Structure formats: C-alpha cells, structure tokens
Amino acid sequence: xxxIILGIDPGTxxxxxxxxxxxxxxxxxxxxxxxxxxxxxxHAIKLKKIFETTIGxxxxxxxxxxxxxxxxxxxxxxxxxKLGRAQGVAIAxxxxxxxxxxxxxxxxxxxxxxxxxxxxxxxxxxxxxxxxGFSVSPKQLDATDALAAAVCHYFQTSGTVSRENKKxxxxxxxxxxxxxxxxxQK
Length: 186
Description:
By secondary structure, this protein is α/β, with parallel strands linked by helices. The protein is about 45% helix and about 20% strand.
C-alpha cells in the first residue's frame, strides 16, 4: 500500500521538512526543503508561519503520517520553550488535518538512519543520500534531518526496506568500510 510520510525538524529560525513516498517496500524522496524564519522578529508570527506552512504541506502532499523530531534537553530554557512551541504548532497543524503524529528523539532518528545515535548531521545526510539516491546540499541539513525523521518513522512502523539494486549497510561505519573512497562533503 502506498503512503506518504511528512517529516519535520522544528525550529524557530529554520524549520526543515521532508516528504517520503513509500510504494510497497521502496522509499522515494518526494520533496524536502527549509522554511527560513530568522528575518521574522515576532515569535508569534514565526509560529503562525510554521502552522501555515505545515498545513500547506499537508494539503499539497496529503501525507498519511507526520514524524517530528522531539525536543532534547538543553541548558538555555528560553530556547527550549521556543523550540517546544514550534514543535507544538507543527503537531497541532497535523492534528487539525487528522494526520497521526509520531515523535522521535534525535538520538533515535540518528540510530535508525546510521546505526549510530551520536552521528553528525552530515553523516545522517550522507546515509540518506545513499538510501534514497539524491544529492545533498550542506545548506539543507535541517531538511535532511526532517527527512531522517520520516525515514525513521517508516523503519519503526514497517521494518526493513527493499533498496532496489542498493546495498544494505548496518551503519555509517559499515558504509565507509565498504566504500573507502567515499568521504563526507562539507
């Protein structure tokens, strides 16, 4: 059964989003991008823009699920509150459109994609490039983080994936071992 998963990496300066199309057991990148919010000074206006953008993505792509990166604990309480609001607004938009929501910790997402819960954003992006066969721009690491949430959700809800003519790797280290000429692009 075909399905679409919307992944969101919430943020009040940059919100990443990624859409994953599943056909059978094959994953395909549908769309990814970022919403730039840093030029907006009013926090409430940023939240409104996050809500509107999430609703727009839902209306245009009709996802079956929303996978969102959960908050992690930080030292700056104000930043945590703002991030929590951004996450809550994206979740509210999905619930408003009757889209089921799943939250995953950053560590769980990284573990699911690379086999290493402490992987860097670049390692996650590199593994997604291998899994889905697309080129990664360093400017879109928030977008690939969002796409990683969608892929993590697929892995958590559907098990393994058939990667048509693509080799399966247990993690980033295994990939680099099998591909010694490959290096991260920075």
